[in-house]
TrEMBL record:
The keyword Cell membrane applies. The chain crosses the membrane at residues 6-29, 88-108, 114-131, 143-166, 172-192, 288-306, 318-343, 349-369, 376-395. It is a multi-pass membrane protein. It holds the Pfam family Polysacc_synt. This is Membrane protein involved in the export of O-antigen and teichoic acid. InterPro entries: Poly_Biosynth_Transport (IPR050833), Polysacc_synth (IPR002797). Keywords: Cell membrane, Membrane, Transmembrane, Transmembrane helix.
Length: 402
């Protein structure tokens, strides 16, 4: 691996780790300031924003990763394989806002008017993810890194101010993720509009052309976030407040795996299929990173949970073991999804993530109804394990290019 590639991967992973680090710090101070119940309201806003993002983002973050530099389509490699290249489009601003309005109209009656803070938070999430993919594709990382540092810095500074002032109104704590984040995200959106070679599409074109990637992005969020959406609706916001402190603390492993997968997708032979044996070797190498980090992180959290978050969060210790195991499986699943996204058949990515999403829609309601937040934690293991198995099975037994 060349020095420039290593530097780029470290930069992308570093940006994700910065976000994870800020989330961890903000997680601590907001948990201590708000308590489980109000912390759960903030978490509900953010989780709804994350699960809304793929719907209003139309899979553009993944389309940009698959797009060859200088090409308006999916890349020439698919044509070399005798396949028609998908024609992804960049949705217009009106298409994004229409999709956002439809989603808002659905969730408003369920969670109430204050939950509409998830709408601008979703816009920030979408446009920053587009900017990230465009920066990886074009290898112009400096601007993205500056915007990321600025956005994460605004979250951290805003949260510290609220903590020092003793603010316990949860809406203010949710607001630090939106202002001034919306300005950094809008700048990223403008950069993507300037750099992209994808044609711009209205609502209908965006739905039709980007359907496969939109679904795979939504399926990813269903498998990773559905349990967090169901907890406040089926149990209580307080249960989510307990769950989220552990879930957030174990997420750095996910961001490392996702960053590595995204860079490999964009720059490691798009359109070239890897068979199961090659994928198994890649997973074995990845496990040398994922397993130690997961175990060390889980062990540290076991001893630091109460000192960091306070005595009110001691019941959350029951979630550490299952969520640590789940984080390792999720890292392996994201690694496999990166291999599938880079291959010639992007539909297989949707199938793998769809299998995990279907498993989540079946497993999470049952285990949350029967065992509450603890069921959500153990259910995550089953969901991600199904995803790993599905992703591996969907890879060709032998290299399709041989």
């Amino acid at each position: 691996m060349s020095r420039s590639v290593i530097r780029a991967v470290v930069s992308v992973a570093g940006a994700s780790m910065l976000a994870a680090g800020v989330s961890f710090i903000v997680n601590i101070i907001s948990a201590r300031s708000l308590g489980p119940e109000l912390r759960g309201h903030v978490a509900t806003v953010l989780q709804l924003a994350y699960i809304t993002a793929p719907i209003i983002g139309y899979g553009v973050d993944r389309a940009l990763l698959r797009q060859e530099e200088g090409s308006g389509q999916d890349g020439a490699s698919h044509e070399d394989l005798g396949q028609k290249s998908p024609r992804y489009v960049l949705p217009s601003l009106s298409a994004v806002l229409i999709a956002l309005a439809v989603v808002a109209a659905i969730i408003w009656p369920i969670y109430g008017p204050w939950i509409m803070m998830a709408a601008p938070a979703a816009l920030v999430t979408v446009w920053m993810s587009w900017y990230r993919s465009d920066a990886i594709r074009t290898k112009k990382l400096r601007g993205f890194l500056i915007a990321t540092f600025g956005y994460q810095g605004s979250i951290l500074i805003g949260s510290l101010i609220l903590w020092l002032l003793g603010v316990r109104t949860w809406q203010y704590w949710a607001g630090v993720y939106i202002i001034p984040g919306i300005f950094f995200a809008l700048y990223g959106f403008m950069v993507v509009r300037r750099n992209q070679a994808l044609p711009q599409g209205a609502l209908r074109e965006s739905i039709r052309n980007n359907a496969a990637l939109t679904w795979s992005g939504l399926a990813k969020l269903i498998s990773t976030r559905l349990n967090r959406i169901l907890l406040p609706a089926m149990v209580s916001a307080g249960s989510l407040g307990l769950f989220i402190v552990v879930a957030t603390a174990t997420e750095p492993l996910y961001w490392i795996a996702q960053s590595l997968a995204d860079y490999q997708t964009s720059h490691s032979g798009k359109g070239n299929s890897r068979d199961r044996r090659a994928a198994a070797r890649s997973l074995a190498k990845g496990s040398l990173l994922f397993l130690p980090l997961g175990v060390i992180g889980g062990a540290a959290l076991w001893f630091l949970l109460v000192p960091l978050f306070g005595r009110a969060y001691e019941p959350a210790r029951a979630f550490i073991i299952p969520l640590t195991i789940a984080s390792i499986l999720l890292a392996m699943f994201r690694h496999l999804c990166g291999i599938l996204l880079a291959g010639p058949h992007s539909q297989k990515l949707g199938a793998a993530e769809g299998a995990a999403a279907v498993a989540a829609m079946i497993i999470f309601p049952i285990v949350i109804y029967t065992h509450g937040a603890l069921g959500a934690a153990w259910g995550s293991i089953a969901v991600y394990l199904i995803g790993v198995i599905a992703g591996y099975v969907l890879l060709p037994a032998r290299n399709e290019n041989s």
